[in-house]
Amino acid sequence: MKIKEYVVSIILPVHNASKFLPECLESLKNQSYQDIQIIAIDDFSTDNSLSILKKFGREYKKLEVYHNKKRYGLAICYNRALKVAKGRFIAFMNPNDINAVNRLKRQVNFLLKNPKTVAVGTQYTSIDESCRKLERSNLPQVHEEIYENVIQASSLLPETVMVNRERLPKDLLYFKATKYPFVFTEVFLKFFQYGSVANIVHSLYYHREGIKRHGRKLSKRNHIASMLKLWFTSKSYNDYRPSFKTFIPQLVKGI
User: How far is CA 127 from CA 133, 136, 205, in A?
Assistant: First the structure.
C-alpha cells in the first residue's frame, strides 16, 4: 500500500463504549485538520457500539468500520488497523475520550517542523462523565525526560501520541498482547533508536476519569513485575538504558 504523505490514520479500538462514543466521533469529525482516515475496530461489543459506528460511517466517509467476530483485545485491534492505515502519520484514540479541535493540526505541524522527531504526544485534561474539567497534566516536554520515564507510563499518555512512521522501519509498529499501558510501552521504547520523542505544551486531549477501561487491571505487584521485565528486556533488545533510580519511587509504591 502506498503511504499518503499528509494523511493522519487514527486508530480507534472500540469495546462496549456506546455511552461516550458519539462524543468521541464528533471530536474527530470536527478536527481542523481534515486529511484523515479513521479506522474503527469494534472488538466484539455487546452493546450498540457497532451500530453507532456504522451509522456515523454512513454519514462521514472518512470513518472505516471493521468488526471482530470475537474479542481479541487492544493489540490485535491495533495491528489489524495498521494493515489498512494509509497515512504517513499514525494517531491513537480511546472511544471514551474527546479531542480538542486543533489536536491533529498541531501535532502534524510539530512533526513537519521537527523532522527528527518520531513521535509527539500532548498534554491532556482529565474530565468526568459529565465533561466537567478536573485536572490538567504536566507531562515532560523534552526527549530526555520522556526517555527516562516512559516505562513508568508517567511521561506520555499513549492515546495522545502521533507517530511519523516515515522515520521507522516498515514492520516496527507491531503490538503484542500485553496489558495496558505496556501494550503501548513495548512499541514506544523502540522509537528512541530512530528519533526524538516530545510532548506539545498545549492540552489537546480530554481523558475521561471514573469509567472502566481496558479490561481488568494488573495488580500492583504484577504491574511492578511487568515494568521491571520490560526494563531488563529493553536494555538487551532496544538498547534502552535509563537510570535505575527512576524506578525507585514506583518500586517503593508497589511494596
Answer: 4, 9, 10
Task: List the end-to-end C-alpha distance of the chain, in Å, as a whole number.
Answer: 48
Q: Which residues span the domain enclosing 66?
A: 4-254
* φ/ψ (deg, to 5) at 178: -115, 170
Chain centroid, CA 254 distance in Å: 25
What pLDDT digit, counting tens, does each position of 127-147 carry? 999 999 999 999 999 999 999
Say how many domains are in the chain.
1
For the beta carbon of residue 2, count every other beta carbon within 10 angstroms: 5
Residue type, 27: S
- Its pTM stands at 0.90
Q: Give the pLDDT of residue 177.
A: 76
CA distance 158 to 184: 7
Residue 162 in contact with residue 99, Cβ under 8 Å?
no
Of 6-20, 70-84, 161-175, 213-227, least confident by mean pLDDT is 213-227
Which amino acid is present at 62? K
Cis peptide before 169 (omega within 30 of 0): no
Residue type, 36: I
Residue 139 maps to which CATH number?
Answer: 3.90.550.10
Q: Is residue 108 within 8 Å of 89, Cβ to Cβ?
A: yes
C-alpha distance from residue 125 to each of 134, 139, 192 (Å): 7, 11, 26
Q: What are the residues whose beta carbons fall under 8 Å from the beta carbon of 167, sequence distance 6 or more? A: 116, 118, 194, 195
Q: What b-and-e string marks burial along 16-29, b requiring 16 or more CB atoms within 10 Å of the CB?
A: bbbebbebbbebbe
